[in-house]
Design brief:
The N and C termini lie far apart (73 Å). Helix 2 (56-75) runs antiparallel to helix 3. The protein has helices spanning 5-45, 56-75, 81-99, 102-105, 108-131, 139-160, 163-193, 201-230. It has one domain. It has eight helices and no strands. It is an all-alpha fold and 235 residues long. The protein is 81% helix and 0% strand. The chain crosses the membrane at residues 21-42, 48-74, 86-105, 111-130, 142-160, 166-186, 207-230. Belongs to the BI1 family. It comes from Desulforhopalus singaporensis.
């Protein structure tokens, strides 16, 4: 009568480990979004945004962000946990500086409204990623191809300046980043279930930072795509 006690205990332990790891990851994501939001708001309303947009400084900041993301992704195993935290915070600050320009282009009310729409969509897809029994790992290559397609099309449209292509890219982007949200949440959940919590505090911190970065990027990009549809222009 006791033969199922051990499997149930092991399953519960995996579930609890996954829950703790997910909580750490979402906490770091929230920290990153909070930093970005505060920096963007004060940069815009202090007037500093006007010295960023349309200047070489904006390009420098964008390349700085890309460099931090690639460096974190490539070197996370060799970095100290404290360094990974600092780089994530630094990325959040840089992204806040560049995103401050949206306050110059859109009304505050439409930005706030779009944020809540994004939060709702993100939350729904995150919940799906948590509870679904379906293996979403097969989505990875498909979503990655969609992401590459968005990047290439966006670069091409810089020269074409096609409004139709702009809206198509935005719509595809919404689908890609909602899908990535569910995919990334399920992947993070499995990291917690598969033993990262037993690898020590440093591994847990670095793993949660990388998971937070993925979810942060999903949220920010989904927000920017939706802002194209729901953002009210200041003009």
């Amino acid at each position: 009568m006791y033969e199922n006690v051990q499997p149930m205990t092991a399953a519960r332990a995996r579930q609890e480990a996954s829950t703790i790891f997910l909580a750490k990851t979402f906490n770091w994501m929230a920290v990153g979004l909070g930093i970005t939001g505060i920096v963007a708001f004060f940069t815009a309303y202090s007037g500093l945004a006007y010295t960023i947009i349309g200047t070489p400084l904006f390009i420098v900041l964008v390349f700085g962000e890309l460099g931090l993301v690639f460096y974190l992704s490539a070197r996370i195993e060799k970095l100290k946990a404290g360094t990974a935290k600092s780089l994530f915070v630094g990325y959040s600050v840089l992204n806040g500086l560049t995103l401050s320009v949206i306050f110059l282009a859109y009304t505050s009310a439409s930005i706030a409204g779009t944020f809540f729409i994004t939060a709702g969509m993100f939350g729904a897809m995150a919940l799906y990623g948590l509870v679904t029994k379906k293996d979403l790992s097969g989505w990875g290559s498909f979503l990655f191809m969609g992401l590459v397609g968005i990047i290439i099309a966006s670069v091409v449209n810089i020269f074409l300046k096609s409004s139709n292509m702009y809206w198509i890219i935005s719509l595809i982007g919404v689908f890609v980043f909602t899908g990535l949200t569910a995919y990334d949440v399920q992947k993070i959940k499995r990291m917690g279930e598969e033993g990262i919590m037993a690898q020590g505090e440093s591994a847990i911190t670095k793993g949660s930072i990388m998971g937070a970065l993925a979810l942060y990027l999903d949220f920010i990009n989904l927000f920017l795509m939706l802002l194209r549809f729901f953002g009210g222009s200041r003009d």
